[in-house]
Design goal:
Elements lengths: L34 H6 L26 H29 L3 H34 L7 H35 L2
Helix pairs in contact: 2-3, 2-4, 3-4
């Protein structure tokens, strides 16, 4: 039975792109080729790469580390949260009430958290990329320091916020 072909179909009488003049596929693994055919093949690997195992030095680390930026954010978060805690302590001692300083310190604490959270995220991303081998190992120490300082800034900045809202809730609950 003859193969039916559409006359205006662009695939009619099309040659197979994976077959050479002898009808062999030069890209398949089971064909044997002469050394001259391999030398002329642009897609063939180097002759010494046969049976060579993977080496991690075969690729280039492409991700750019950012430990300085993470460290700057972590230090800024720690300074802001420390300033907020000390300022609230001084204001409470000076005014004798804790509600008024609360509204002055909350924006500072939230700003500290807004700086500390990205520091932790950037530092953790860098440490994971270094561990995976996709980033240069030179920034590991600064990234680890940024992660710890960012976490400390989050604890120092987040604890007073929780305490403030707990005190506010308790004062409203027991004032009735």
């Amino acid at each position: 039975m003859a193969k039916f072909e559409f006359p205006k179909n662009p695939a009619t009488h099309r040659e197979n792109p994976f077959k050479d003049a002898e009808g062999e596929n030069p890209f398949s693994d089971d064909t044997t080729q002469s050394p001259q055919a391999i030398k002329d093949n642009l897609f063939a690997g180097p002759a010494d790469s046969v049976g060579r195992s993977y080496s991690p030095n075969d690729y280039e680390a492409i991700l750019v580390p950012n430990p300085k930026g993470a460290l700057r954010l972590a230090v800024a978060g720690l300074v802001l949260s420390g300033t907020g805690v000390v300022g609230v302590g001084i204001a409470i001692a000076g005014l004798g009430t804790w509600i008024t300083p609360l509204f002055y310190a909350l924006p500072l604490q939230f700003t500290a958290l807004a700086a500390a959270a990205p520091a932790c995220i950037i530092a953790r991303r860098d440490l994971r990329a270094i561990k995976a081998g996709a980033m240069n190992d030179a920034g590991r120490g600064k990234s680890r320091l940024a992660l710890w300082l960012g976490a400390a800034a989050g604890v120092v900045g987040g604890s007073p916020v929780v305490i403030y809202f707990a005190l506010l809730f308790i004062s409203f609950a027991f004032s009735r």
